[in-house]
C-alpha cells in the first residue's frame, strides 16, 4: 500500500512538471508575439526618431514642418493626459486573423487614471469596403481595482456588454477624480 501512495504522488509530480513546462513555453511564445511599450520606451523612440530625422533632413526644406507637427502632437498628447488624468502604461497588439478585406487584432492596454489602475483586453474587427473602413470592438474585458464598490462592478459589466470604450474612458475619468476627492477627504478625518 505504501508503494501505491508513492506512485500516485510521483505521477502527480510528473504531471505538474509537464504542465509547468507547457505553461512556460506558452508564456515565452506570448511574450515574443506581443510587444509592450512603456512611457520611457515611447519617449526613447521619439527621441531616436528625432535624431535620425535631424540627421537625414539637413538638406531638406520640409523638416521644420514635420518637426512642428511632431511637437504639436506631443503637446496634444500631454494636454489630453493632463486633462483626462488617463495615462497608458503599456499596450500590446497582436493580429489574430487577416484576410483581404477583414482584419482582427487583439489589443491589451493597461494604465491608470488618478490612483485607479485598469487593464483592457479587446478585439478590434476592421472590415474594409470599397470606400471606407469600419471597426467594431468585440470581446471587451475590463479589469479594474474597484474594491467593493458594486456600482463600479455594474458599470464595468455593462461596458463590457456594449463594448463602448468611449463611455468607459469618460466615466473612468470622472469617477477617478471623485474617488480621489473622497479618498483625500477620508484621510483628512482619520
TrEMBL record:
Membrane-spanning ranges: none
Pfam families assigned: CENP-P
Keyword terms of this UniProt record: Coiled coil
Taxonomic placement: Eukaryota, Metazoa, Chordata, Craniata, Vertebrata
An annotated GO cellular component: nucleus
Entries under InterPro entries matching the protein: CENP-P
Organism: Cathartes aura (Turkey vulture)
Coiled coil: 6-33
Any GO BP: CENP-A containing chromatin assembly
Name the record gives this protein: Centromere protein P
Amino acid at each position: 500500500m505504501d508503494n501505491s501512495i508513492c506512485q500516485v504522488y510521483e505521477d502527480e509530480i510528473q504531471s505538474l512538471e509537464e504542465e509547468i513546462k507547457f505553461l512556460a513555453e506558452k508564456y515565452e511564445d506570448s511574450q515574443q508575439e506581443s510587444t509592450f511599450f512603456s512611457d520611457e520606451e515611447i519617449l526613447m523612440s521619439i527621441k531616436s526618431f528625432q535624431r535620425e530625422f535631424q540627421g537625414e533632413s539637413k538638406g531638406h526644406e520640409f523638416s521644420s514642418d514635420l518637426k512642428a507637427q511632431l511637437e504639436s502632437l506631443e503637446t496634444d498628447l500631454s494636454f489630453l493626459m493632463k486633462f483626462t488624468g488617463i495615462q497608458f502604461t503599456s499596450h500590446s497588439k497582436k493580429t489574430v486573423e487577416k484576410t483581404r478585406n477583414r482584419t482582427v487584432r487583439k489589443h491589451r492596454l493597461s494604465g491608470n487614471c488618478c490612483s485607479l489602475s485598469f487593464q483592457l483586453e479587446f478585439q478590434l474587427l476592421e472590415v474594409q469596403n470599397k470606400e471606407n473602413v469600419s471597426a467594431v470592438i468585440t470581446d471587451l474585458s475590463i479589469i479594474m481595482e474597484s474594491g467593493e464598490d458594486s456600482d463600479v462592478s455594474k458599470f464595468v459589466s455593462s461596458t463590457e456588454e456594449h463594448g463602448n470604450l468611449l463611455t468607459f474612458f469618460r466615466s473612468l475619468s470622472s469617477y477617478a477624480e471623485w474617488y480621489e476627492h473622497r479618498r483625500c477627504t477620508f484621510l483628512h478625518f482619520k
